[in-house]
Write a structure and sequence with these properties.
The protein is about 25% helix and about 35% strand. It has a six-stranded mixed beta sheet, with helices on one face. A two-stranded antiparallel ribbon has the order 4-5.
């Protein structure tokens, strides 16, 4: 059975999609950009600050659904510039210190709201 996950602790969807969808013990988290849910604006700073905000948003959705970072099995990272790959990895590693999920990382032409990074995740209980 499909369950829609929504929390005010992560940014509201900016289109016709859900923050997360849970089906049979698997949580699919939509791509998160570095928007602070309190201000509804992209956080100030560079790739490190933006990556941390994205992962905090993912954490809020995980928490709302009763999951943890340790339940994440796959992430897809989209970067506006591969020159930010190393700095993104440094922040990312703080959220996934052990048993890291599978992952793909791509450079894309442009991200919503001029963001430098967007990350989607899949978690399993």
């Amino acid at each position: 059975m499909k369950k829609i996950i929504h929390t005010p602790k992560a940014p509201a969807a900016v289109g016709p999609y859900s923050q997360g969808v849970e089906v049979d013990g698997t949580l699919y988290i939509s791509g998160q950009v570095p928007v602070d849910p309190a201000t509804k604006k992209v956080v100030e700073g560079g790739i490190s600050e933006q990556t941390a905000r994205v992962l905090e948003n993912i954490g809020a959705i995980l928490d709302e659904a009763g999951y943890a970072y340790s339940n994440v099995v796959k992430c897809t990272c989209l970067l506006s510039d591969m020159a930010n790959f190393v700095a993104m990895n440094q922040v990312y590693a703080r959220y996934f210190p052990d048993d890291q999920p599978a992952r793909a990382a791509f450079a894309v032409k442009e991200l919503p709201l001029g963001a430098l990074v967007e990350i989607e995740a899949i978690a399993v209980k």
